[in-house]
Design brief:
By secondary structure, this protein is an alpha/beta fold. It has one domain: 3-Layer(aba) Sandwich (Rossmann fold), CATH 3.40.50.150. It contains 7 helices and 7 strands, in the order ααβαβααββαβαββ. It has a 7-stranded mixed beta sheet. β4, α6 and β5 form a beta-alpha-beta unit. It is globular. S-adenosylmethionine binds next to loops. This is SAM-dependent methyltransferase.
């Protein structure tokens, strides 16, 4: 099925959020990072300002800046309305209340929009749809990330996840995926299948995160190449 912008509800997080989500250390931040399903997050633009290296991949990068901005503007009110109605489903710890959430999300997406055309030219925002293979070389990146896409969208199925994660692991030495819950805030149905597929050839572990917004969504999945003993 063709990827259509009208089905996307843009929602982007910040560098501070990614740092807490994935427990990124100073040395992680100095590594070559690739971030899948990065959408309108400001992680890439904020990292670039700090002279760090991030490549972001997402199907929405096929659209123009004007179209993306229009989609952000037209969905904003509906999403914020839903957040107000469903406040009790979330943990107001990292983000204090709905007004702060709106300010953080809109700030992140505005940073992204302002950086998008330059970043596309510099090959920092690259149009790519998982589970397709990428143009990058084997182990070209130290760290591959997926914030709020893999595992969360469990309806995409186990095969989709295995194929996507296989490609992530081909080009990255280590990958981190957050959260490990699905959209109903229960453990992702594909988690066990993913773990059992990769655990014989890779080190696979679930680790705590410093971030929680979905209730109980405070863990990430880490998969890395086994170290040679
Ligand atoms: C909830 S957003 C998360 C954005 C960002 N990672 C963050 O945490 O702020 C999910 C993203 O997944 C992207 N996406 C949807 N289908 C995808 C696919 N097949 N491959 C990669 N990304 C996809 C969407 O375009 C969207 O930007």
């Amino acid at each position: 099925m063709a990827f259509e912008l009208k089905n996307v509800v843009p929602w982007g997080r910040t560098l501070e959020e990614y740092t807490k989500i994935f427990k990124l250390t100073d040395s992680d931040l100095d590594n070559r990072i690739i971030s899948f399903g990065d959408g309108p997050a400001s992680f890439n633009s904020e990292m670039t300002k700090l002279d760090k290296t991030v490549v972001s991949l997402d199907p929405i990068y096929q659209f123009t800046k004007a179209k993306l901005k229009q989609r952000i503007d037209e969905t904003k009110e509906t999403v914020m309305e839903q957040m107000r109605t469903n406040q009790e489903k979330f943990v107001w710890k990292n983000i204090k209340n709905v007004d702060e959430l709106e300010q953080i999300r809109m700030g992140a997406m505005s940073n992204f929009i302002n950086d998008f055309e330059l970043g596309k030219e510099q090959q920092r925002y690259v149009y790519h749809e998982l589970p397709n293979s990428t143009k990058y070389n084997t182990q070209e990146f130290d760290l591959g990330l997926s914030s709020h896409f893999l595992l969360l969208y469990s309806q995409l199925g186990l095969d989709f996840h295995i194929q996507s994660i296989t490609e992530m692991l081909r080009i990255s030495k280590e990958i981190r995926i957050f959260p490990i819950l699905n959209l109903n805030a229960v453990r992702s149905e594909v988690l066990e299948g993913v773990i059992s597929h990769f655990e014989s050839d890779f080190d696979v572990k679930i680790e705590s995160s410093d971030y929680e917004f979905q209730k109980g969504g405070n863990e990430m999945l880490i998969i890395k190449r086994k170290s040679i003993k």
